[in-house]
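The data are passed on as follows:
___
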Amino acid sequence: MSSAGKPIYCRYGDESRLADFIGVLSGLVSFVSDREGDEIQSITTATRKGGGEPPLTIVFKTVGPIWLVMATRSGESFTMLSQQLVTLHSQIISILTGSVQKILSQKPQFDIRNLLVGTDKCFDSLCGWMNSSAAFLLNCVHGLRLTASLRLAIGNILLQSRRGDLFYAIMLARGQLVQLLRPRSFILYPPDLHLIINFVTSSDSSFRTSEAQWTPICLPMFNDRGFLHQYISYISDDVALLLLSSKAEDFYAMQQSKDAIVDAMRSTGALENLTNRLSRQYYSVKDVPVPGLLHFLYKSLSTSQMTAPAPGPPYTSRQEQKRLFRLYEHVHRRTHPLPVSSTAFNVSDSTASGSSTASSSSVASGGGASSSGGSGSAAPSSSTSSSSSNTSHLTHRVYYHVSEKETIVAWTTAGFELYAVFGPLESKAVCIRGCNQLLKWIKQEESSLFILDSPVW
């Protein structure tokens, strides 16, 4: 909503019918701002007697004249909920650019919903993705598992087929990154790439049925004051090619670039090989020689990329997968610092912590598990481990969490983050040994798990 109480977007229901509710929220924000000279961060209700569902948490985020609010019983941390609101704000900027902030500052009563007609599907898709995506949780990109030779060949084709003022060339397969071409001096950050991927996947059916689409997009971390213009085309049933230019009149140059890429990929067999690889897109923990391993997330900090197996037993149902994701959120919170908040209203004994947006790393090439310290040669010592506690303000390099159904080891270093899930009866020594074995396997497979040879121009 805007600072004048004008609705902008609502995930559930019709925002035009929420005038009374929006008025209450606006009053809360204004009350704290006027009386305390501060910004309201969150409200947490009391937990019902007898337990049951988690307390209701309402999180506020004010970004100039745009106010974002989220109400949930998901049990997620304030940090995660606040970051979701920041991403929703970025989605608004990606459609309207940062100039919308100036417009609303000068004309608070202006209704920007007319400028966002037809974009609800994009917002809805982003909300669902943020609530279940490990890539969003870890602020990174999930690359398609691919042989190094095929990825290198595709990268060379993208580079050699550059036409006009092509800025970025991005190839996606089923929502995962295949290859990326970028300028040497301009980095594409994960939050911007998330917006691009969401834009394509949220309108997947319309892009598939048309030969190509030419549409503007603003990348907030690249430049929130202007548009890049993206040429979007599916070159096969599951492979999308995105060509981003800095000029609005570059449509035909991007079309020529796309034709050159498709011709080269077909003549070399790269497109056929890529399509065939999609049947082996995912791997399971059975492919990883680590006894007792149930699932894991691994992020390479040098490349801002992650890898994870497809969910297997016991995480085959949607409910179990969601429970696992919440556990990952919990251990992630224990291994990352939480800045002290501004004002948080708590109608309970719970505490709501504040957050500021963490700086984002970039999607770049070079340095896989080896440069991330992923050789597995240095096991974490038990003295750095910690069991679950109420000291949410503390962070740990290694965090050892035991629940009724699983044991999770979270291990963070200057080069990587690892979250490994084992059975509930596994000892700490077995889990640590398993983590080292897992890191050795990631080192051996890094050329296929990560994009290490992204071309630049």
Notes: DSSP finds 13 helices and 15 strands in the chain.
